[in-house]
């Protein structure tokens, strides 16, 4: 439901903070697929996650460790 509210007005930027955090694996994959589809459709999608599996579907990763940004 939250993903629907976030994209209903076709925003140019979608901010997703732990979008799969409280979901089971199957539903988490569906949400990641929706975010991937949005990105492929020209939307900017910024996702914050602690889950390496969620990070595997993105184009760019920026890690923040001990307060510093690092490219993996």
Describe this structure in words.
- The strands form 2 sheets. Strands 1-2 form a two-stranded parallel sheet. A two-stranded antiparallel sheet has the order 3-4.
- The chain has helices at residues 2-7, 25-40, 52-55; strands at residues 13-17, 44-48, 63-65, 68-70.
- With 72 residues, the chain is α+β, with helices and mostly antiparallel strands.
- It is 36% helix and 22% strand.
- The protein is built from 3 helices and 4 strands; from the N terminus they run H-E-H-E-H-E-E.
- It has one domain (2-70): Rossmann fold.
How do the helices and strands line up, and which of them pair or pack?
Elements: H1 2-7, E1 13-17, H2 25-40, E2 44-48, H3 52-55, E3 63-65, E4 68-70
Parallel strand pairs: 1-2
Antiparallel strand pairs: 3-4
User: What percentage of amino acids are in beta strands?
Assistant: 15-25%
Give the CATH level 1 class. Answer: Alpha Beta
**Helix/strand structural class:** alpha+beta
Sheet with the most strands, sense and barrel status = 2 strands, parallel
CATH-derived architecture: 3-Layer(aba) Sandwich
Nearest-integer average pLDDT: 89
SSE order: HEHEHEE
Q: In what order do the strands lie side by side in the largest sheet?
A: 1-2
**Oligomeric state of this protein:** single chain
User: What's the tally of helices?
Assistant: 3
CATH fold annotation: Rossmann fold
Intertermini distance: 32 Å
